[in-house]
Amino acid sequence: MPLVTLRQALDAARAGGYGLGAFNVSDVIQAEAVLDAAEETDSPVIIETLAGTSSHGSDERYWSVLQHVISTYPSVPVVLHLDHGPNPETCRRAVDSGFTSVMIDGSLDHDGRPSSFEANVAVTAGVVEFAHAAGVSVEGELGTIGGSKVDGSRAEIVLAEPSQAKEFVERTGVDALAVAIGTSHGAYKFTTPVDGSVLHLDLIREIAEIVPGTHLVMHGSSSLPAELRAQNNAFGATMPESWGVPDEEKVRSITMGVRKINQGMDNHLAFTGAVREFLGTDGLTVDPAPYLDLGRVAMQQMVAARMRLFGQAGRAGDLRGVTAAHAGASA
Ligand code: 13P
C-alpha cells in the first residue's frame, strides 16, 4: 500500500475513535518489527525516525532503505514521519526524500532552551508552507516536552498553554500538535509510579476543544515496563528504576483527544533486552543475524500489544484506497 500522510491517517483515527502509535525506529530491522506488528494486527501505522541517529552512513541512505522496506509490506498503510525535526533544512531534506509527514520542533532555541512563542510560530509556519506545497503533513510543538538523561536529570518541561493553542494553529496551519502535558522523553522518566494525578490530561481535553481540527500528539509515552528493565539489567545493563506512562493513562488520553502516541524507548528496551540476553548466554556466536532476529521479534511483540491497546488493530481497511499526493518525493 502506498504511503499515506499523517493528516489522512489521523483523520481516519478520529473518525474511528482510536489512537495511532508512532513508533520510533533507528534501524531498518526495527522498522521491520513495526511493519510485522502492523501486518499481524491489521493496523495502519506511523513509523517515525529522528535525523542523524541511525547507524547507517547517512540519513538519505537510511531513509531510502526504509522506504524500500516499507514498500515490501503492500497491505500496511504507513505514515513515514520525521520526529523532532530540529530546523527547516532537516525537514526539507525529509520532504525531498519522500517522507509524508514531518515534525518541526520549534519549541527549543539553538541552545536547547525553550524558545519564544513568536519564534516557534515563525519557524513552524515556514515549514508548513513548503511541506504542504509538497503534500506533506506537519506536526508542531506547544510547550516543551522534557527529556531525561542517563544520569537521571531532566531537561525543563514547560506545560502547553491552552490560550496559545488557537493562535498557534491559526498562524501555522499545522496538522498535528504535540502538547507538553508533563511527560518526558527517554528511558528515565518518573521516580515514582504514575497515577491519574501526575499527567495533565486535563490540558488535552481543554486544547482539543480549542483546536478541534488539529490532531493532538502525546510524546514521551513509553511505559518503561519493569520486566524489560529487569531483563536488560540481568544481562549487563545498569538501568536505575524508573516509571513511564501506564497503559491506562494512554487509553484515557485517547478518549480525551490524543490521536498520535509516540513510543521509542519501549521499542528499544524490548529489542536490546533480547539482544543482551542472547549475548549474555551465548559465548560462541559471532554472526549478528541470530540476535538481531531475536531483537526484531521481541520488538514486534511489544509493538503489536500496543497497537491492540490503542485500538488501531483491525483498522488498516480505513485507509485502503487512500494515497498521499506527495509532490516532493524523489524516492
Ligand atoms: P519515549 O521516549 O517515551 O519513548 O517517547 C518517544 C517520543 O516521544 C519521540 O518523540
Whole-number tally of structural domains:
1
Q: Give the CATH architecture.
A: Alpha-Beta Barrel
Query: How helical, in percent, are the residues?
Result: 40-55%
The chain-level mean pLDDT equals 93
Care to count the β-strands? 10
What is the overall number of helices? 11
- Alpha-carbon Rg, integer: 19 Å
Coarse structural class: alpha/beta
Instruction: Say which molecules are bound, naming each kind only once.
Output: 1,3-dihydroxyacetonephosphate
**CATH homologous superfamily (4th level) name:** Aldolase class I
Quick structural overview:
This protein has 331 residues and is an alpha/beta fold. It has one domain (6-318): TIM Barrel, CATH 3.20.20.70.
Structure in words:
This protein has helices at 6-16, 28-41, 59-71, 88-97, 117-133, 162-172, 201-210, 226-234, 247-256, 265-281, 289-310; strands at residues 20-24, 45-50, 78-85, 101-104, 137-142, 146-147, 176-179, 184-185, 215-218, 258-263. α8 (226-234) runs parallel beside α10. The longest helix is centred in the last third of the chain and has 22 residues, at 289-310. The mean pLDDT is 93. Helix content is 44%, strand content 14%. The chain has one domain: TIM Barrel, CATH 3.20.20.70. It contains eleven helices and ten strands. It has 331 residues and is an alpha/beta fold. The strands form two sheets. Strands 1-2-3-4-5-7-9-10 form an eight-stranded parallel beta barrel, surrounded by nine helices. A two-stranded parallel sheet has the order 6-8. α4 (88-97) links the parallel β3 (78-85) and β4 (101-104). The structure holds 1,3-dihydroxyacetonephosphate. The site of 1,3-dihydroxyacetonephosphate (13P) has 13 residues, from β3 and β10.
